[in-house]
Amino acid sequence: MGACQKDFESAVNQVKLLKKDPGNEVKLKLYALYKQATEGACNTPKPGLFDLINKAKWDAWNALGNLPKETARQNYVDLVSGLRSSSDSSSQVKPEADKKRAGYDTLVITSEDCITKIMLNRPAKKNALTTQMYREIMLALEAASKDDSTITVFTGNGDYYSSGNDLTNFTDIPPGGIEEKAKNSAILLRDFVDCFIDFPKPLVAVVNGPAVGISVTILGLFDLVYASDRATFHTPFSHLGQTPEGCSSYTFPKIMGPAKAVEMLIFGKKLTAGEAYAQGLVTEVFPDSTFQKEVWTRLKAYSKLPQNAMHISKQIIRNHEKEKLHAINAEESRILQERWLSDECMNAVMDFFSRKAKL
Ligand SMILES: CCCCCCCCCC/C=C/CC(=O)SCCNC(=O)CCNC(=O)[C@H](O)C(C)(C)COP(=O)(O)OP(=O)(O)OC[C@H]1O[C@@H](n2cnc3c(N)ncnc32)[C@H](O)[C@@H]1OP(=O)(O)O
């Protein structure tokens, strides 16, 4: 049987999560098969001789001639599956080393009672999200989508849920310069948010304390948000010279109406848990003293519900907006790439590190 569109889309996502760079030759093959599967035979003019990269891509695509779209789709899925199993089998040689290499230095992941729990684990830094952490979360989501748990839970270790993007991401500039960093960060951000948009199982946030920035915006992509009454919800983008991400430019106005979304996303109004509940961003608020007990009792009961029914219901509720969400995510990431290079943003980051500004 040929690969269905879902297998193909899943293979496209898996490529982003490969642990090892497959090399240029394989990347060209993947590119060519992707173009053939989505657009059919090569239909663009041949790039000039000196446009080396685009010419190599064009040659690879053109070499597929009139290969049918379905066959290209299947070949793409097979190629990705081969790449994944070779990276898995190389990791089986040293399971302990691989566990370390696969990441989770910044997360604690446990599976119990059909629930996979992904806990942000940098309590001393208020669970601020480093680039390593974004990558580990993507890997954890990929694994959780395939394990036998029925629901997946995000929470934070310590007194914060998360203080959002780790601002040291702005100071760790590679030799290629700030422009290159901004470009790569925009790709990372888009891929990160895409993983939430596409996540197939019910996704639950257990917001144990204050949440800032991107840890708030992606809540619009969760299926349940439980909050301690100690939690706050803060998106101070203008203060940081930045703009909304995580699809919040779309999900927040939809959830709470444009007037309230503007207060949060443009003016940086910090919401209490009760206010976030009133705006529809939070499903339910619990007293901090009984938060963990009440939430986990509830989740354990939910996790025993029939798995397929829950997953199909999620698909019905979410799938019709997926394409739109991906487009919004791409646009938000593109705009942020420019913002990160602005004086407004740089000054805000410098103020934080020189201790002139705290939220
Ligand atoms: C061109 C390159 C671009 C790179 C971009 C990468 C991809 C980004 C994609 C997404 C973008 C997202 C947007 C956001 O998330 S915006 C929100 C960013 N977050 C903040 O601005 C919060 C900053 N932190 C604070 O204001 C305060 O720390 C606090 C959260 C209010 C807590 O205050 P506190 O007094 O209770 O605790 P404090 O002593 O400050 O914190 C303890 C230590 O933790 C460090 N820390 C906390 N949060 C962060 C953070 N977000 N980034 C870096 N470090 C953080 C803090 O510095 C303390 O460290 P130390 O003990 O002094 O060493």
Structure overview:
It is a single chain. It is built from 15 helices and 9 strands. With 359 residues, the protein is an alpha/beta fold. About 4% of the residues have low confidence. The chain has 2 domains: 81 residues, Acyl-CoA Binding Protein; 251 residues, 2-enoyl-CoA Hydratase, Chain A, domain 1 (Alpha-Beta Complex), CATH 3.90.226. Helix 1 crosses helix 4, helix 6 packs parallel to helix 7 and helix 9 packs across helix 10. The site of ligand LQQ7U7AH has 26 residues, from helix 7.
Descriptive tags:
359 residues; alpha/beta; Acyl-CoA Binding Protein; 2-enoyl-CoA Hydratase, Chain A, domain 1; 2 domains; 6-stranded mixed β-sheet; 3-stranded mixed β-sheet; 15 helices; 11% strand; binds ligand LQQ7U7AH
From the 3D coordinates, which CATH architecture of the largest domain would you assign?
A: Alpha-Beta Complex
* Sheet with the most strands: spatial strand order: 1-2-3-4-6-9
CATH superfamily of the largest domain: 2-enoyl-CoA Hydratase, Chain A, domain 1
Strand residues, percent: 5-15%
Q: Would you identify the regions where 5 or more consecutive residues have pLDDT less than 50?
A: 90-102
Number of domains: 2
CATH fold category name of the largest domain: 2-enoyl-CoA Hydratase, Chain A, domain 1
Number of helices: 15
Nearest-integer average pLDDT: 90
**How many DSSP-defined strands?**
9
Brief description of this entry?
The chain is an alpha/beta fold and 359 residues long.
What is the topological layout?
Elements: H1 5-16, H2 24-39, H3 52-62, H4 69-92, H5 95-101, E1 107-112, E2 115-120, H6 131-146, E3 151-156, H7 178-198, E4 203-207, E5 211-212, H8 214-217, E6 224-228, E7 232-234, H9 248-256, H10 258-265, E8 271-272, H11 273-278, E9 284-286, H12 291-303, H13 307-318, H14 322-339, H15 343-353
Parallel strand pairs: 2-3, 3-4, 4-6, 5-7, 6-9
Antiparallel strand pairs: 1-2, 7-8
Helix pairs in contact: 1-4, 2-3, 2-4, 6-7, 7-14, 9-10
Bound molecules: ligand LQQ7U7AH.
